[in-house]
Design goal:
The complex is a heterodimer of chains A (about 575) and B (about 190). By secondary structure, chain A is an alpha/beta fold. Helices cover about 45% and strands about 15% of the residues of chain A. In chain A, helix 8 (about 160-170) runs antiparallel to helix 9, helix 18 (about 445-460) packs antiparallel against helix 19 and helix 19 packs antiparallel against helix 20 (about 490-505). The longest helix of chain A is centred in the C-terminal third of the chain and has 19 residues, at about 465-485. Chain B folds into two domains: about 10-80, no CATH class; about 90-190, Glutaredoxin (3-Layer(aba) Sandwich), CATH 3.40.30. Chain B has a four-stranded mixed sheet, covered by helices on one side. In chain B, helix 3 (about 55-65) crosses helix 4. Chain B starts with about 20 loop residues before the first helix and ends in an 18-residue tail after the last helix. Classes of the chains: A alpha/beta (about 575), B alpha+beta (about 190).
């Protein structure tokens, strides 16, 4: 396939789409499928057939539309009209939508989700432009929206140096959490000596409460493949690996199909788009280990070994997979490549803040009215995200904290709600951007209990290679368990803080280094809750069952009791 | 636990020296990766899919085929949560314990299931009927708390509805006699949703 063929394919698809009077888009991503989207789509199909509208109405199953808690979602697209979003669609209302809106032109008002809600208006789509609009299983849909144009442009009109320079100029930073400048990393791999190089997309989204990568892989797989191919061209790699988390079977299936289709059409594989560049992508399915999100551990896992990290340097850019220079980026980072090449670095750099460019996808979840997947410009305040986009916390409750960055991140309290969301501001608050999980907690959540939850996670997921992480997380978890069951003493708090600093400074990889973050940040902002647990043995949020007694108190209590009784109790005599 | 039948129909017309057609599936993966030792995790994935769990003989077979020490194969199989060295129950119930589900009280669901069936999360009932698993995050945080019973995703659960769903799954196999037990591939069925 040549560039001209690509354009012809886009043209054909656009013409095909114009033959329809309207398009009914049904969300077919995991959350909507769990709420019964399949039945809704079947109902739509039967209803359309009953009204004999087959030739005029197209029914498309798409990727995620965003407001997951309001699913199943159906969007009605008609040329020359605004899109109409239907929420909580049931098979009955699906039939109603076809009978009233599609056939008679009367929208079903009580099921409409207004498109001028802050949920939609405040978002800036860079990566998710196709999500919820195209059928992820059809290459034609993607090509009709300009897909693989960026790859064709890069291969024909740009040198690898220019591609790297463009990425550097855009200011794109890694979306996996640490925020390392992507262009710099690409350039390092490009310059690294070696005949064989690799590109890895990290789709091992182990961070509980985050599902941005899954959505991107499920909703727009070709964009990810195209981004990886551009990266392969820029750094001089001919082989790419896509590491997909084992818990995401839908994503793996769609990606596999997308790779096969792209290879058949000459968009991947040998001689991509009839150029001299070849690029193959293979999928590796993870087997359930959080530590595999760490780059060296992930590479060990791709090589079929235990997913244990190794000390850096050497960095993967010098010596990665099988000792070859390896470019490893998060799935979302690769999702940003196509828009940068398409629209230019300047356009991308105009979004966001001075140091954090572009947009960020967040998975908004927890005690917030509208949960779902959102893409916002960097630098938006937490208040806008939670209260405007998310619609605030539930009635009768007050906002307490927002947790970003999962088990490696921290909690941001109400007084910092106006902090801009960018890499530096979040780090200053003791949290991190992380991969983008954003869990909202209200007054019914107990912070020491939340810290214990994350510590239990890190304890289970510690790979066991280095001592500070393996032993430290267990000890910290024990102390937190004592705090939340009422048997902690004032000393425990001090030991906990010392342990946190030690584990942070001496662990081998990011898992251990960041494991104390949830504890440290809750200690920083919610110290009064810890003190209430320890000094007054009460849980202000009513979550912890304070059933135990501090061991020291028992020792203290005994002599006092003996004095009171004037004699040694019979059991001890 | 009833014997698991091979699901591959293609395998039935060939034979394997072991007499068990499920090994053909493993051999196919081995060949696809040209017996590379680096493909160990892929081979174990296939083995678990075919057999439901990784018994010792299976690990020995994989180790021999890839010319790896058994300790190495055992080390990898025990490192990853996805691989199970014990047989799984006929039905399984996965409770998401991700952050979003946790703040929405998923722990209470786990506790309710544990008391009701007398097993801890990660265990199988002695009669081999039910396995309860606490998962890290199923990535459906918008629907928290989430539960997967025999491959069916249930959203916004409370302890009572969760117990009812599990009871229903258990009852369904009691009523239909010729029920085919499924291997531990709850996720596969998500395609049918």
């Amino acid at each position: 396939m040549k560039r001209a063929d690509l354009q012809a394919m886009a043209q054909r698809e656009l013409e095909r789409q114009q033959t329809f009077r309207c398009r009914l888009l049904c969300c077919a991503s995991t959350p909507c499928l769990s709420s019964g989207a399949t039945a809704v789509q079947q109902a739509l199909e039967t209803a359309v057939a009953e009204h004999k509208l087959d030739a005029e109405v197209a029914i498309v199953s798409t990727g995620c539309m965003g407001p997951c808690s309001r699913g199943p979602m159906v969007t009605l697209q008609a040329p020359g009209q605004d899109d109409v979003y239907y929420e909580n669609v049931t098979p009955e209302s699906a039939r109603q939508i076809v009978a009233e809106h599609v056939a008679a032109g009367q929208p079903v008002l009580d099921k409409i989700m207004p498109s001028d809600l802050p949920f939609f208006v405040k978002q800036t789509k860079v990566v998710l432009t196709n999500s919820g609009v195209i059928d992820p299983e059809r290459l034609e849909d993607y090509v009709a929206r300009g897909g693989y144009g960026a790859l064709a442009h890069a291969l024909r009109e740009m040198t690898p140096e220019e591609v790297c320079a463009e990425i550097s100029k855009s200011g794109l930073r890694g979306r996996g959490g640490a925020g390392y400048p992507a262009g710099l990393k690409w350039d390092l791999v490009r310059k690294a000596p070696g005949d064989k190089k690799y590109v890895i997309a990290n789709g091992d989204e182990g961070d509980p409460g985050a599902y941005m990568d899954r959505t991107l892989m499920e909703s727009d797989p070709h964009r990810l493949l195209e981004g990886m191919a551009i990266a392969g061209y820029a750094v001089g790699a001919e082989q790419g690996f896509l590491y997909v988390r084992g818990e995401y079977p839908v994503a793996a299936k769609r990606l596999e199909k997308a790779i096969r289709t792209a290879e058949r059409r000459g968009l991947l594989g040998s001689r991509v788009l009839e150029s001299s560049f070849s690029f193959r992508i293979d999928i590796r399915i993870g087997a359930g280990a959080f530590v595999c999100g760490e780059e060296t551990a992930l590479m060990a896992s791709i090589m079929g070994r235990r997913g244990q990290p190794s000390p850096r340097p050497p960095y993967p850019a010098q010596s990665g997979l099988w000792g070859c220079p390896t470019l490893i980026n998060n799935v979302e980072t690769f999702g940003n490549i196509v828009p940068i090449i398409e629209n230019g670095a300047q356009w991308f750099a105009s979004i966001g803040t001075a140091k954090s460019k572009g947009s960020k996808i967040f998975a908004l979840a927890g005690k917030v009215h509208t949960t779902g997947l959102i893409e916002v410009p960097m630098g938006i305040t937490l208040r806008e995200v939670i209260f405007d986009i998310g619609g605030g916390v539930g009635e009768g409750h007050t906002f307490k904290a927002a947790q970003t960055g999962g088990p490696s991140g921290g909690c941001i309290p109400a007084e910092h709600l106006d902090t801009p969301m960018d890499y530096e501001s979040l780090r200053a608050l003791g949290s991190i951007m992380g991969s983008g999980g954003l869990i909202v907690m209200d007054d019914s959540s107990c912070m020491p209990d939340v810290a214990k939850f994350f510590m239990e996670f890190c304890m289970d997921e510690s790979c066991g290679k280095c001592v500070p992480c393996r032993v430290g997380t267990v000890q910290m978890h024990r102390i937190l368990a004592r705090i939340t069951n009422g048997s902690a003493t004032a000393d425990d708090l001090q030991i906990l803080e010392e342990l946190c600093v030690m584990v942070q400074e001496t662990s081998l990889c990011g898992l251990g280094m960041s494991a104390p973050n949830p504890v440290l940040s809750t200690l920083r902002f919610f110290r009064d809750e810890y003190e209430a647990h320890i000094q007054r043995r009460e849980c202000p949020s009513g979550v912890c069952q304070m059933t135990e007694m501090p061991a020291l108190d028992l020792v203290d209590a005994l002599p006092r009791r003996i004095r009171e009784l004037g004699t040694v109790p019979a059991v001890l005599a | 636990m009833a014997e698991i039948k091979a699901r591959s129909t293609a395998a039935s017309d060939q034979s394997h020296p072991s007499g068990d057609p499920r090994f053909i599936l493993i051999d196919r993966t081995l060949k696809r990766f040209r017996f590379q030792q680096d493909a160990l995790i892929e081979v174990l994935h296939t083995a678990q899919e075919a057999f439901g769990f990784l018994e010792e003989d299976l690990l020995i077979y994989v180790a021999r085929q890839l010319k790896l020490p058994l300790s190495w194969v055992f080390g990898v199989a025990t490192f990853y949560h996805f691989f199970s060295l014990q047989p799984q129950g006929e039905h399984n119930c996965i409770v998401c314990m991700g952050t979003a589900c946790y703040v929405k009280r998923a722990a209470e669901i786990v506790a309710a299931l544990q008391t009701a069936y007398g097993i801890e999360a990660g265990q199988t009932t002695p009669d081999g009927k039910l396995s309860i698993t606490a998962a890290r995050c199923l990535g459906s945080c918008g629907l928290a708390p989430v539960l997967i019973v025999d491959g069916q995703v249930l959203a916004r659960e409370v302890p009572e509805t969760a117990l009812a769903a599990v009871e229903q799954a258990l009852a369904s196999s009691r009523s239909s006699n010729g029920h085919q037990p499924q291997a531990d591939q709850s996720f596969e069925e998500e395609d049918d949703l």
